[in-house]
Design brief:
about 375 residues, single chain, Rossmann fold, 13 helices, globular, 7-stranded parallel sheet, alpha/beta
């Protein structure tokens, strides 16, 4: 019997960054297990290429055009969000609501809720050492809503132990929360790797630290390509690809011999996992999340030291045996973070919460009759 049979799940998501990739993978896997899953977008609507990721699945997609919480720190859109999502819950009658952002956990849901913390403004600012603006009233209100959301949800989850510790330290939630690593379907690296260094990240996002790679690129023997939204003048030593559809990104990863991420902040890093699964050698910033997930399977570099990053990349380009060893290690480590494992962990959590809610409801009925 499928573990997800007869479970109706309403899952919120957004289309900016890795949350969409995560949501599509998990929703598709849950649906394959027998669950009835509706994916509800907040923020910009999914592009045509993003919708293709749900093609040939039974996942339902609903767009709401509601603001993302980090784009609405004043909370002007909260009333609309509460009204729209309450109507959706009434129509869908889910057994469980899976939230991929914070503020919605404070709404008056009928079903039990799971909140997954993918990132937050405060932890981003701390990692980027850019915290002066957090004292503004609108960001204080944001922080209060995040803390309230963590306490309101029946369960909350982080994708890494390092990020769980950050959330706990910043917001001090009443419950301990859980850690469920992200996962993807296993892939077999195909074909011979090309002499290519590849990176992916939003160029406007300071946390991705792409400027460190731009400073490290001059003088490297191999070309450097970066995929991601472009909103600035770009150095000539890197080939800037702009935002790629997910399928095109996967193809680039299959070709690239080296994947580099000098990120200052990364609660998990799905692009790193996809690169490892494609058999890339990993050169990563020395931050707690990457150490947790990729210890023994990557080269780690101080993200503030572009000269050290240049040396690490240059040495790896010249070391065929060392590169092959790292590629194998990264691929083998990627198998730890499987979609099957992630889906099973979430289903177990969902079923526990649904069973607890039904037990509580039954107990309440007995008390009323008594």
């Amino acid at each position: 019997m499928n573990r997800g049979a007869d479970i109706r799940i309403m899952m919120t998501t957004d289309t900016v960054g890795g949350v969409w990739t995560y949501s599509c993978a998990l929703a598709t896997s849950l649906a394959a297990s027998g669950a009835d899953v509706t994916l509800v977008t907040l923020g910009p609507r999914a592009r045509v290429d993003q919708r293709q990721m749900l093609r040939e699945t039974s996942v339902h997609l609903v767009d709401t055009d509601l603001a993302l919480e980090w784009q609405d720190p004043e909370g002007r859109n909260v009333s609309d969000a509460r009204r729209v999502l309450a109507k959706l819950e009434a129509r869908l009658s889910p057994d469980l609501v899976h939230l991929n952002s914070f503020r919605e956990a404070t709404f008056a849901w009928q079903a039990p809720t799971v909140l997954v913390a993918h990132s937050c403004v405060n932890s981003w600012a701390l990692a980027c050492r850019d915290t002066a603006w957090l004292g503004e009233p609108r960001w204080r209100r944001y922080s209060e809503r995040v803390a309230a959301a963590l306490d309101a949800a029946q369960a909350w989850v982080c994708p890494s132990r390092a990020f769980h510790d950050d959330i706990t330290a910043i917001y001090q939630p009443r419950s301990r929360g859980a850690v469920i690593w992200n996962g993807i379907s296993p892939r077999a690296p195909s074909g011979r790797k090309q002499d290519l260094i590849f990176a992916a990240g939003r160029l406007w996002d300071r946390a991705k630290n792409i400027e460190a790679l731009a400073a490290a690129a001059p003088g490297l023997d191999w070309p450097v390509e970066v995929a991601g939204p472009i909103e600035a003048r770009l150095p000539a030593d890197i080939t800037w690809l702009g935002e790629l559809p997910h399928a095109a990104l996967e193809t680039r990863l299959q070709h690239a011999a080296i994947f580099v991420s000098p990120a200052l902040y990364e609660p998990f890093g799905l692009s790193v996992l996809e690169a490892a699964a494609a058999g890339c050698a990993l050169v990563l910033s020395d931050i707690p999340t990457f150490r947790e997930l990729w210890r023994g399977a990557a080269l780690f570099v101080d993200p503030s030291d572009s000269e050290a990053l240049h040396r690490a990349l240059a040495d790896l380009c010249a070391d065929e045996m060392g590169r092959a060893k790292l590629q194998r290690a990264a691929y083998e480590q990627s198998l730890t973070y499987s979609l099957t494992r992630m889906t099973s962990a979430y289903l177990g959590l969902y079923q526990d919460l649904i069973a607890s809610r039904r037990t509580s409801a039954a107990a309440s009925q007995i008390e009323v009759r008594a």
